[in-house]
Amino acid sequence: MLRIKNDLQANLSQEKYVPLKQVNIEGKIHSFAADVTIKQIFRNDESTSIEAVYCFPIEEQAAIYSFIAQIDDREIEAKLKEKKEAQKQYNDALQQGHGAYLLEQNENSQDNFIINIGALPPGKECHITISYVTELELIENGKKIRFVIPTTIAPRYNPTKGEITSPAGTNYKYVQSSPYTIQFQCEIEKKNISSVSSSSHPIQVDLSQQDYYLIKFSQDKTYLDRDILVDINLIENHSNTILAIESNALMVSFTPNEKDCQQAMNNDNNIEITNEFVFIVDCSGSMIDENKIGFARQSMLLFLKSLPLNSYFNIIRFGSNYKLLFNDATVIYNEENCKQAEQMINKMEADLGGTELVKPLKWLEAHEPKEGRSRQIFLLTDGEISNVNEVLNLCRSMSKSCRIFSFGLGKCPSRSLVKGLARSTNGHFCFIPPSTNVDIYVGQELEKALQPSITNIEIKWNLSTQIITAPTNIPPVYLNDRLIIYGLINDESFIFNHNTTIELYKNNKKLSQAKITQIPHIINNNKTIQRLAGKALILELQHSKLPSSSIRKGSQQIRFEEYNEKIIKSSDDDKEEIKKRIIELSLKYNILSPYTSFIGIEKRVNGNNDEMILREIPIQISADDQHLQTLGFIQTGYAQSINFGQNTNNSNSNSNVQSTPFSFGGQSMQQQQSMPFGQYPNISNSNSTVQYVPFSFGGQPMHSPMQQQQPMTFGQNTNNSNSNSIVETAPFLFGARPVHPPIQQQQSMPFGQYPNNSNSNSTIPCAVFSFGGQPMHSPMQQQQSIFQSTPLNSMVLPEACQSYRSTLKAPHSDLSYEDTDEMSINNPRKKKKEEENFPTDDQDIVRYLIHKQNFNGLWNFDSETIKKLTGKSLDEFQQSTNEELVISTIIIIILLETRFSSFSSMSHAIIQKARKQILDLLGKDNNKLQNLFDDIRKQF
């Protein structure tokens, strides 16, 4: 866990005004893109002018094209200028007593933006409007489109300082609760859409409109503590090639199916076999939240079992430092090394401190793949680092020999980092929503990594004018992934011929085509495609590879210094040339870049800003980063927010509230909305200690006794006086399924509530533990108030709990299975334990089968286990071979392909591995293999 300096602790007695009052977001989605408008309302409630500064996130690939400030009846439309010039104009305007408005993009972390509102007079309100367009992500093997609105910036670790620092080089404070809220609505074009949902927020969907769905938040107050995720389900059998046009711009989208990939591989005589796999997993302190480290264990086990025989692998854990499983860069994948890796995975914890990703990447850069091998890197992180550019520059230098599949975990990972890792190495990125099964997403990416991508794609525009293609170097595309290519036309008089066909080629053989007459939507009277094309060109330049200035070629002698300096100067010249080109593109297409800024000046007569006060808007901590509260880094709140444990309308209260919700299993613990836990309405002279310790260690959900009680939460005392109560809760749940204690059946009043009692002095012990893998729901679901968590080791548990804590350790996968060697027939106690723990949930059964697969891809189950899975013992399956290992494996493959087909993304790689191994055992006789499958399949 991080140790963070306590210099940002708030002094709650000092009232601080927060000028940001409200954030409104409106979006319009057409096919592949979204046009988004952010409106922010600032008000100065102080007696002197203020300079309000607010740092907030927007998607890295977003093309911001408009910045407008409105104060009173005046509207100031900002102009885009080179950053240094814009900053000077902003500063000069404030010195001259004018108003000034500046929007900047942070150069070190491309998804951080800063608004500066200079000299907002007392009592005045300013409305800021920001507009941008962005591409939408295609996820779940082409079945869904995901629309993401980042809302908060997670505290990010700075390896240079060895601590968490404020974003964008500012002095922003992180707070548990902020007074400003967010409103959201979005119009989604209905064409090719089957349904809409959100995994991040409760939404309501209006179906009454003819052409679009209208979605809004279904709750009144929503805080900026997690990214907004909207999933758009596509209809089946949609076209794999889509074309859209507007004046002077085109967009073609290509999503290859299995037929396309097979055709491309048949046309490629030099298919590269990937045979090195490195899993880099974030084990910093922030990974403990939302049980991200538990999900990482699940995904690493799937990764391990999916590796092909005769491949090479390694696992690297990183935090403030890094730890290698094997000292060599990679080792052969065999039974001994596989077992060693599995033991490490089961013991893995989020115990490596900060988040310093550069160190393991530098080690890998120094240990390149051997000749004839290529390397796939799977990098799993919550992305909470500040030195994004340094990491990406390093990755670009590794791009010739490896590609990175990056996974962003949690409610607000650095999207700039996760996407940049993949873009800089021609890999692929994936964002995994909170409390989601990571192994499913890793399985999908493994499927991509274990097969060649389609590379060297060429596009033929077939137009009678010059076309600028963006990006200029077309990246690889994977099965069910999406490739977007833009075309820009400088000739404004050009008129499209609607019989024109756009064609995609691979090695001079046609892959796909689309006619302009077949477009699903023509975007008229705007510049969406043009702006996205310009942004694509800028991103390509930002992620282009440059020679490393830290590695000096040639002699290190001082007398050869002048020759080395020439290399460094050449590298600096290249960087300046790229910067210059980015500025040109930014100004040409009027879209913001790291080196340009929007500046607006409000001329004022007889203005004076000498007494102006700086007000930096506090950033609300994300729901992922509750662990930082225990370290003194997070402030408890600002004016207009309610602190956890705050007593409303109470007198002489002396309460000590400690709430520590932990989930060590597969899902997260949500927070409740009705009232902040620990609030005591209408109580006088209360002196209470509430110690609430819910735990979940695995399996299925643990439901608290008050889950169905909406009006009030646990720990509330109504109409009581002189109460002196201690409430210690900890109900226990020991299996993969929930055990509901008798107290749960009481529906009339939440447990812990005492109506019409006086002078009570009671202790109520009740232990709540879950040892399965699903969520434990605490009594604070959707709670928006402030709470302060307590470290596990310092927690005060009831005496009954202490003995359990001394013997139990949080399990390291959703279901804890003993090693195969210990589960022998000669050990009845172990065998009985396995029978009791045998999973019943389909997804847990799939995980069980993954866990039990041998390193070589085969399953060696006994007759009794086969009977649990199929209803028939192994002996009852008639077969033409005496190889029980082969028969057992075929039975499991058929089960995975039929009964458990909905989890195919998890099982695809292990099935292919098993099939290949059986084929080898049968002397590569495909007919014999097929006959065996057919015979056994008929017996189910």
TrEMBL record:
InterPro entries listed in its UniProt record: VIT, VWF_A, vWFA_dom_sf
Coiled-coil intervals, chain numbering: 69-96
Assigned keywords, A-Z: Coiled coil
Keyword Isomerase belongs to the record: no
Ranges of residues in domain VWFA: 276-457
Location of the region described as Disordered in the Swiss-Prot/TrEMBL record: 812-838
Pfam families per record: VIT, VWA_3
Gene3D superfamilies reported for this sequence: von Willebrand factor, type A domain (3.40.50.410)
Coiled coil listed as a keyword: yes
Protein name: Uncharacterized protein
Organism: Adineta steineri
